Amino acid sequence: MEERPMATFTKTSNNEDTEKKESIRCLTTLSHFGFECLPYQLVTKSMEQGFSFNILCVGETGIGKSTLINTLFNTNLKDSRSSHFYPNVGLRIQTSDLQESNVQLKLTVVKTVGYGDQINKEGSYQPIIDYIDAQFEAYLQEELKIKRSFKYQDSRIHVCLYFISPTGHSLKSLDLLTMKSIDRKVNIIPLIAKADTVSKNDLQKFKSKIMSELISSGIQIYHFPTDDETVAQINSSMNAILPFAVVGSTDEVKVGKRVVRGRHYPWGVLQVENENHCDFVKLRDMLLRTNMEDLKEQTHIHHYECYRYRKLRKMGFTDVGPDNQPISFQEIYEAKRLQFYEQCHREEEELKKRFMQQVKDRETAFKDAEKELQDKFEHLKRIQQEEIMKLEEERRQLEEEIIEFCKTKAACETLQTQPCTNIKKDKDRKK
Ligand SMILES: Nc1nc2c(ncn2[C@@H]2O[C@H](COP(=O)(O)OP(=O)(O)O)[C@@H](O)[C@H]2O)c(=O)[nH]1
Ligand SMILES: [Mg+2]
Predict the structure, then answer these.
(1) Which residues have CB atoms below 5 A from the ion given as ligand 2?
(2) Measuring from each residue's beta carbon to the nearest atom of ligand 1, which residues come in under 6 Å?
(3) What pTM did the predictor assign?
(4) Which of 240, 99, 261, 125 shows the shortest CA–CA distance to 196?
């Protein structure tokens, strides 16, 4: 009878794992099973679902972000011209459905608005960080939901195209600050914008200067992967020419008999798709043709994983308990719940105690105030009584004075009437 390869499941501990792996037998299949078609199944599934890609463009106003995106996808995403007078940095989000052959791509382009226009550029990178984190948070929340949506639209940023001004000198401090604050959250591909404004010699020096500045500032940019041998060579050669010097234009220009996309100057035509003129094609190939899946994978397994790890740790979740033994989600949840109840109980007791103390304090305060009022009342009452007595005394004295006065008055009147009667008697006698 034919020997058929069988899949067996053996539970192994971590230490045993390597030994067991080494002892797994590799069998040559003697008949056709059909699992060689697995990749085709995946392709069909992916084609049905369609693909999505989210790009973040960071760069000063007017540096050529919209033009480059339109050139990359050979379309017009209808972006209005930005003003230089925004008080803060903002983000503009545009989503479009694109189709090439029978492959559907949902493209989301997020561009900075007003970046580098403020006098105080201190917090210019904050809205960018907030946006990147908000997309990670939305994904995490979806992942933690009981009823998850399988049609969830992943909005995490897969790549950040960082537009560097073609100064020919060095990076600006804003460039370093921004890249430093987002390099652990997103895959950064640095671009020298409007590279047609820098001469070939200056461009080489500028590229080296930028790379040495990035290295000395400890900024991690995205490096095209070199572990897959089918793309290792092209990717390592592309890593060597970073940052890409790009030129964007959707204008069609006639060169000989051909019509190409380019920029027309008095001295000639710059063809954006000519690799001798700029790195536009290299960027497009690296971004869309060769490394789109790796950019998405890095976003998921590296940047999102870091965010998820930090967030869950902050919430108190961990993989091992205090005794360094693996701990399940359920156990952590139970422990957290117990901890929460105990904390609630403690806080409730504390609140009760504080409330009772407050009531006591208030009661004492009321009693003191009452006593104070009583004392005040007694004092006032005493003063009033003294006042009454004083007034009584004064009244008595006045009455005595009145009586005295009346007596004196009566005596006076008597004295006044007596001489008159005597005179009258004298007159009568004379008659
Ligand atoms: N010389 C040159 N000009 C460019 C390039 N890309 C865009 N521009 C011009 O720069 C201006 C601003 O471009 P735009 O894409 O709107 O900049 P955004 O504000 O960053 O989106 C437009 O007049 C473009 O024609 C380029 O690569 N080279
Ligand atoms: Mg724009």
Answers:
(1) 66, 79
(2) 59, 61-67, 81-82, 194, 196-197, 247-248, 263
(3) 0.76
(4) 261
